[in-house]
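Render this sequence as a predicted structure.
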Amino acid sequence: RPREGQLLETVELGDFRAVRQGPEGPESLRSDGVRWTRAGLRLEGNVQWQQPMEKQRLSLRAPRVLIREAPGPDLPESLPQGEAWAEGQAVLSWNGRTLTSPHIEVQYRTRRWHLQAPTLGRGPEGAFSAGAGQGDPRHWDFEGPIQATLANGGMLRGARLSWEDRVWILTGRPATWNRLRERLAGPRIVLREFHPEGVSGSLAAAE
């Protein structure tokens, strides 16, 4: 309880749950505990942040999430106002797809995400490892090295990856695709629905 005439500086709560209504639908936060100050929120333990996104649900899970809403000393100075950090192997998931990173940053009003290397991605198309990434669930760009295993058994290697829904665009010097005794190499490989198309390069296969 603050002294008479003073503002409340800090609130600490356990088993924290909160819901607020946004323009696209309800947004929810859950954690084992929270420290709430004028600067923002410090959520600790099994943090789950659910956000609506174009009639889907975007989920962020992490051991710790920091959300800055105003200036103040309780949060890191390098955390800008209007942004949030998810720390300690955070997982972002939507529509059957996931991205995992040791540190994820988001401008939570524009929903623009930045993922620290190494990044692990998984979806119906397959799984991949990459360096740093940025974007939103409509379109992602990842730095290399890229190593991917496709659901149909193919393997990809390259320097950069663009991921948009079920289309992967891999670039490199060269980018490569291998499956059984087939090998495709070139500066740019486009994969749609698990199969390469729009290929620039060379193809080697068993006769």
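Summary. The first strand starts at residue 10 and ends at 22. Residues 102 and 113 are 13 Å apart (CA to CA).
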